[in-house]
Write a structure and sequence with these properties.
The protein is an alpha/beta fold. The protein contains ten helices and twelve strands. β11 (195-199), α9 (205-213) and β12 form a beta-alpha-beta unit. 48% of the residues are buried.
């Protein structure tokens, strides 16, 4: 069964969702992300994806206290990302209780740094964030597209030992338009050893089932859950 990972995106200490990464299309779902995390645990989820959207904009961790609250008040396995640009940021995240840290923009702009982090902290502690728009990796909170094509980028890090990959199809994110299944199947064909986490567009139980049938190891979802489009009772948690 596909691994199910709910997401909490944080702006100003609140649980929000964006549409296609647009900060001007922000919807606040809860004032207290810690309470949201507790509810996910109560429902039976084991894993949580936390994104510091303020950090992504500021290019350093901002909402570390929210992370501490979540990890100290739940037993969820948390992966944390957003604005991590230094080993100090990684250390802060791990000290705040994150079990894994997602490296996105920095994995594009500074491969040497990212490789050092893999060596220092271990590949199992790093989630490679691959945010895709028109086949190119996007960076800096999705505000710009890099020159890096997705598949060679993933292959480079596969050779460095990376297994955990979070791939977001930006055009799908927050749209409830369905996930980019063909893209994820292509990634798994190239790198069958990846623990690939599909992200973007999930709108229903049927979308999760389709990803499972396609052999995708894991899925992140947020908006569909917050808007009551996913029936938790029918998921195999």
């Amino acid at each position: 069964m596909i691994e199910l990972i709910p997401a909490i995106d944080i702006i100003d200490g609140k649980c929000v969702r964006l549409t296609k990464g647009d900060y001007d299309q922000k919807k606040v779902y809860n004032e207290n992300p810690v309470e949201v995390a507790k509810e996910f645990e109560r429902l039976g989820f084991k894993r949580l994806h936390v994104v510091d959207l303020d950090g992504a904009k500021a290019k350093h961790i901002v909402n570390v206290d929210v992370l501490k609250g979540i990890t100290s008040e739940t037993n969820l396995v948390v992966d944390f990302g957003g604005g991590i640009k230094s080993e100090e940021d990684l250390q802060k995240a791990f000290e705040a209780g994150a079990q894994m840290v997602t490296l996105g923009s920095i994995a594009v702009t500074d491969r040497d740094f990212t490789c050092r982090c893999i060596e220092r902290f271990g590949a199992e502690k790093i989630v490679l964030g691959a945010d895709v728009r028109n086949g190119k990796i996007s960076i800096n909170g999705w505000k710009e597209d890099s020159a890096d094509d997705l598949m060679p980028f993933l292959q480079f890090y596969a050779e460095k030992g990376i297994k955990n990959v979070l791939c977001t199809e930006i055009s799908k994110d927050g749209t409830l338009a369905g996930p980019a299944i063909e893209l994820y199947k292509e990634i798994m064909q190239q790198s069958p050893d990846f623990h690939l986490i599909a992200s973007g567009g999930v709108s229903s139980n049927a979308d999760i089932e389709a990803l499972d049938e396609a052999g995708i190891p894991a899925v992140v979802f947020g908006k569909a859950f917050y808007e009551g489009r996913i029936d938790i009772s029918k998921l195999n948690l």
